[in-house]
Amino acid sequence: MSVDLAHIRQVMAEADCLHPEAEVEAAIDAVASQINAQLAERNPVVFCVMNGGLIFAGKLAPKLNFPLELSYLHATRYCNQTSGGELFWKAKPEISFIDRDVLIIDDILDEGHTLGAIIDFCRHAGAAAVHTAVLIDKDHQRKARPDFKADYVGLTCVDRYVFGYGMDYKGYWRNAPGIYAVKGL
């Protein structure tokens, strides 16, 4: 499958910036402050959800001022597409979190199917408590579970197809320095 880089560049050129870099960075600082206040004495295992959570976790982790174990897991429903399918585990957690608090860091809470499945997995595998931090919570009424909310949320955004700060458009623009919405989506 070849990629039309001209199209990928055009998507960025036409995108609407919903949250500029300074606003995103301030939101990450605020999330770190909340986590520091609530989890510093809980000895959490912190898992970054790959690939989307990579940038948020990388910016957030150095702001957490307590000892923690940091690892990753990789579960996806998107596989570089623009709509989700069945949950696919690429890498399950390798650090034991039995009887420990777990903090899951992800890029976005959209409908919540992936994050919900990860939470269920951690609880079933013996976590004492599971906490979630997302950079973006998409504002709509299609959550997988009616009252599903992340414990720590950086920003909310409108119900559009967004990319940047770890979120991608067809595998590209995870590195965009802000949160952008694809024109027309």
UniProtKB/TrEMBL annotation:
Gene3D superfamilies: 3.40.50.2020. One of its GO terms (molecular function) is glycosyltransferase activity. It holds the Pfam family Pribosyltran. It comes from the Bacteria. Transmembrane segments: none annotated. It comes from Stutzerimonas nitrititolerans. It catalyses: GMP + diphosphate = guanine + 5-phospho-alpha-D-ribose 1-diphosphate; IMP + diphosphate = hypoxanthine + 5-phospho-alpha-D-ribose 1-diphosphate. Residues 19-169 form the Phosphoribosyltransferase domain. Its EC number is 2.4.2.8. NCBIfam families: PRK09162.1 (NF006605). InterPro entries: HGPRT, PRTase-like, PRTase_dom. The keyword Ion transport does not apply. Signal peptide: none annotated. This is Hypoxanthine-guanine phosphoribosyltransferase. Keywords: Glycosyltransferase, Transferase.
